[in-house]
Write a structure and sequence with these properties.
The structure is a homotetramer.
Chain A lengths: L9 H6 L6 H4 L4 E5 L2 E4 L4 E4 L2 H4 L8 H12 L12 H15 L7 E3 L5 H16 L3 E5 L8 H6 L3 H5 L9 E4 L11 H10 L8 E6 L2 E2 L5 E2 L2 H14 L2 E5 L23 E4 L12 E4 L19 H14 L4 H21 L6 E5 L2 E5 L3 H13 L2 E2 L1 E3 L5 E4 L7 H19 L2 H5 L1
Parallel strand pairs in A: 3-15, 5-6, 5-7, 7-10, 10-11
Antiparallel strand pairs in A: 1-2, 2-3, 4-12, 8-9, 11-12, 13-14, 14-17, 16-17
């Protein structure tokens, strides 16, 4: 065995599958992370505008979560308990009831699925099919719901779908998302027509599953009116409404759930990513109580009870969601972010602002340009990624807890990279 | 908000989905766990013969893993890093290469899938279909591979399958496992005949996926000869051999991989459950290098890089797998366990011994009897569960690190429960 | 055994399945048929505006076909020869080559499928999937392609689809037909967008299958521009273009193939219904020669060689398609039909004219009204049916050989029925 | 246009799809057919031991059927009437009731499906799924049920299945047919075990579909005991029993239905091939009245009412099935056939007799040998084909009406061909 330095990356080419991805764009070895900063083995700091794809809404290694977790581990608190009752689980559920469900007058029950988003999505569509006796699920263009077969069938991206290797991705109808077909086209009309025509070939749906803001799909934000329309059509069709809030939830858009100001009443909501607060694997499905017709263990999983996540998730709820102050701060920063992005976008011919809340970005018109911008950002100490069907959107997903100073600094780096690749010196100067 | 005691369970009926399961059989609130003992809010200790369904092969809260994890958290080590390089990940991969892969002359690459077993299984079958251009996968009767749609299609249990709510569980052929059809029937012959007959209606398979010991299916252990037969047929058919070692791996059968003494060369191996060492969510797929044809992110996931799990998994490898001593101790205990179970089984009319290594149990002939035995065990301080198509097998899955004393004590409780429910006072006395 | 009269219908309720349909609307026993007239057991004559759903384009029992068929039978010509060479088959193929293929410069090959339209459709999509290695087929809203599982998946009607009893109707994407979403909406744009967006969730198609005029779907006639657009998109997508000409072909729209004036070059064309000339079961699939990659018997069937149909089909070709006179006469009648229908439609509030050629009708706005009109027509000696998603279209499908006198007489009956049910005495008077 | 002779075959290579098959083995142009003799353009006579794959049980061009059909055509009887009542249809149904259903105390209803076997099969499985609410259908190894997607999923042959071009052949489980796995193996036990094990992965079936004698699959004849076992298991499972009697019915095995001496009570029976008597396309599904829950037109089709077939089918019923004499003659000939085939088989090392009734043949051990034998037969004036998974069975399917003289003559030719290819001069001499 040879001596290796911390920064040695040969093990990855030698032993990690070609499926690895982010490490290719951000090709260094990270050793520390705190708040909005990641540090690599050479001691370089990077501002994190990716935040674990929205899994680190409260930043890296929040000190209160760390402390609670260390205390839990130190005292031999249960780490793995399948889905047995534990004090950590009880405390989490009580905190979730008190800070999230009751204040929003939600009577949903919490299903502990496996700790990944795709598992929560699979549970949701299984339950919807079981309840309605229908197979078809309406998903939307540019949707991303996961990589396991049921969730992959809901996902739009052809590159991901090809990974199924030729097996059928069945029982899903993809219809156009809000705004997908351009300014003039009201996609609600299209959806309603397809579902109300008994000869359209679209079978009566068990459910609609919607990301209120499509993160992977290009930061497409559905309007309140469109979401209300979908809720109405679902009800008319006898279908359930599933909100996939895995990326847009946990405060990302300025409220805990991304649709809580929309006046709709989802039958199910999926949660994952930032749900544990600290980036630990954790997911759940919220279900209206009358729909909770699961038989015991009908959908199960070994890691439904990640007690470490219960601990940190409880701290997150108590620290950030006891009152409105965090939400207000996120909303304030969202405006700041939007304004800065708009001024940057104004210097790119044809560019448009995308997204909502702290989930905004710029459609720069081409995947090549977006990729170049992100690469330059990384060289200059900013971790930021693209999204969209053609990777054409530069996406800001920084921690919601980021300081104004770091947010501005990160946006300066972004502006500089845009200036470089658009030969526009004016932007950086602003 | 009312004051609640630690042991209050009302939150579960009020807010957790009916899908919850283990907490129904073990209806108390656990607050501490160490080694092979779980402790509840009233201070009662329970010997753990379930071990998180084989997720806690090294016991609860191993002190070295705890220490390393606390150190990592304290120094702001990366918690969530998507699939970026981190020092914790590098160290884990190097340890895995040095303690597991190289000594076994395995050139497999490691694919970090989502941190659940079902995700590793989904990745395996996607890849097998992609490589072979075939859709059909051979799975076995009584198999359990997970709850997401692709894995569920591979799973035999009708109760679980019904959860799909009527959507097709496609592109899988279930064939009889070793011994499934009773003593006289060589299922290999059946399998071979079905696959070699070009008019059998069984399409050419992309892969065979096998649990060498079926944990959920009733502790059915495939023989070396049968596994070799499956490996041979797979090769003849141009199909890949996928070993699902999620429950039987990580030392459970006495070796790190459950088939490493079988003289077969699996194309892919799934790992999860005890893979992190400490019960944290963590899974991976081992892939022969020539089969690693994934495109970057073609199968991805938010929690592919659970750095806490990297830390504890590395400690587990270094502590238990640097030499043969742990394996030998497990093999010694396996014999002890087998002998005691046999003597208990001998007092139950028609009962048979099932399983292999530290994954053994007794088929007591009926689910009712098995359930009664487990319930009595719990009353007497032992956590133990059933498995099998009719829940007819009482299954011992204690930590591999259990002391002989606790193992004997647990088996005494089991013997007593058997005696009670078979009205046989002799057993307990032995 | 009791004595029965010719007109006794008790055998049907006693012994025929409830699946029977047309006999419910036209509840008499027919005993004779000639040209455009059906005669029942009581001697009542009915003008036939249904013509076997376009299977009798040349009318009932054409004397030349009759004579040739009787001659063939009398001389022990082969009746059933599987797909072996027979003189009747040779003569048919030569006539088809000379009258249809060569004059239109078509190099297609003829695949004798089973003698039903659905079988030709199934063959077409199997071949398209085999050639392209893709599974997805684009079909259209309100499409009707048959009742066997592959064709049913292409069919839009939910009542028909429900007959599948819950099995998946896979690997088909239904997109909106020309004009389906109303005047203002260019469905080509929608189709193109869905297929060019790599994240739409619509997998790359093997083929587009289109009825140029949707018969069952409500006499929706695609425009030349739209069909050209579909042909262009198919080519861009690497997908094959399948024209389902089963109902609209054989002269129904004024030319032999319904798209021959459209400047498109279909990869495959399905033919059935009037293909035999005399209403005998007979179907075929035309395939561009470079696409004829079938292995012998890879798609087979017992009744691929209906020699009686070869005889009558040959007569039909020689009698009606040797020159342009028949086409011109059909086109002349089509104008006459259109004009009369328009004047009838003008008296029904909100009614619109549908269709093309001798495949026209009136959308009267409601299935109830359309049903009432057809029922009254039958009472008055006219056989005519509805179509459309809501059965809202009164559809004229009379023999193309109908005399002007009978055509006018039938339309008079229709006008009278419309007048009765719209309380509009003016129509009939015209 | 060039002058062509009757025997010119260039049109086929020029214009018929490569899917054509029988014409390759029997490469001449037939011009006449009568009884058991086909005659080609050169005036050569061939004894027909193929009989349209059992579509010509009453021989070619039966004079009574011819006469009735010519009379019908001459008097302008209805040719095509969709599924409307006609005198020809009434007369057929009454004859069927009187000669077939009532004497066998069957209360089944007759569903007129499209005129092909595959259509009747598709209707049967649709109905079974609709009734039971289950998707899975049990089909058997080596089964052949048709080429449309639903029937193809039931078919075992991989060459045929590959024609689906990669789309899933879903919701079918193939289990081993009677005797499929060799002498010692009771496949009923296997089937029963797979279906009674709730964790086998085989979903509860909607139906079992069985050919009592597998024609294409190699003349595998199920025993009475096995068929009774399947009937019992189906009942226990709440599944319907569908007998596919398309090839084995209409007297082929010595009784009208091939299982009428088996003491079972099928829920549905498919009929086609010889159903029309004269080889015209015609099929039907028999349904127990309580299962006839079709909605009108829920399964429909243009050619459900082939009135020419009604006419000839009625004559067949009245001529051959009014009393037991025809059955007795078929049974007599079956013994004769069996004895001759056995004596031929005895001279081929390893050869075995296959089949039942007038559906017998010799498994000669290899497809090459079987092919050579059939080719030599054709040279010597006998049309005969192979079947089986490896085309290893030489299959006799002559008309049931064949004279003893022609039957012996045909068997002499067969014996001579066997002698030639096994270098055994003794056979022919016998």
């Amino acid at each position: 065995m040879t001596t290796v330095t911390t920064g040695d990356k040969s093990i990855y080419t030698r032993r990690e599958s070609e499926a690895r991805s982010y490490c290719r764009a951000f090709d260094t070895v990270f050793t520390k992370a705190s708040g909005s900063i990641l540090t690599d083995a050479e001691g370089n700091d990077y501002i994190d505008f990716l935040a674990g794809c929205s899994s680190l809404n409260y930043g890296h290694n929040d000190p209160d979560m760390k402390a609670a977790l260390i205390e839990h581990i130190s005292r031999d608190g249960v780490t793995h308990g399948l889905d047995m009752h534990t004090d950590a689980k009880s405390a989490f559920l009580r905190a979730y009831e008190n800070t999230i469900l009751r204040p929003r007058r939600m009577d949903h029950k919490v299903m502990m699925t496996g700790p990944t988003g795709t598992n929560a999505v699979e549970a949701a569509i299984k339950l919807a099919r079981k309840i309605t006796g229908r197979r078809n699920v309406i998903a939307f263009t540019n949707a991303f719901h996961g990589m396991t077969l049921g969730a992959l069938a809901l996902t739009g991206n052809s590159g991901k779908r090809d990974g199924a290797g030729g097996t059928s991705l069945n029982d899903v109808t993809h219809l156009p998302f809000d705004g997908a077909m351009g300014e003039g086209v009201d996609t609600l009309e299209h959806i309603e027509w397809m579902l109300s025509n008994p000869s359209s070939g679209v079978d009566a749906p068990a459910a609609f599953i919607v990301e209120p803001v499509q993160g992977e799909g290009g930061l497409n934000a559905a309007s309140k009116e469109w979401m209300q329309g979908i809720a109405r059509i679902a009800k008319e069709q006898g279908a359930l409404l599933i909100i996939d809030d895995i990326q847009a939830g946990c405060g990302r858009t300025g409220t805990y759930f991304s649709t809580e100001d929309f006046g709709i009443d989802p039958d199910m909501i999926t949660q994952a990513k930032s749900f544990s607060g600290m980036g630990l694997p954790f997911a759940a499905l919220l279900i209206k109580p009358e729909l909770d017709v699961w038989k015991p263990a009908e959908h199960n999983g070994t890691f439904r009870g990640n007690n470490h996540a219960f601990v940190t998730a409880r701290v997150a709820l108590e620290k950030f969601w006891k009152d409105k102050s965090f939400e207000k701060d996120v909303q304030r920063k969202s405006e700041l972010l939007g304004a800065r992005l708009k001024s940057i976008a104004d210097h790119i011919p044809g560019a448009t602002l995308k997204g909502r809340g702290m989930m905004q970005g710029i459609d720069v018109g081409s995947g090549d340009l977006a990729g170049d911008i992100c690469a330059t950002c990384f060289e200059n100490g900013l971790i930021i990624e693209t999204s969209g069907a053609h990777d054409e959107v530069v996406k800001v997903l920084c921690p919601l807890t980021i300081s104004d100073e770091l947010l501005e600094k990160g946006l300066d780096i972004l502006a500089g990279a845009v200036a470089k690749h658009t030969n526009n010196t004016q932007i950086a100067a602003e």
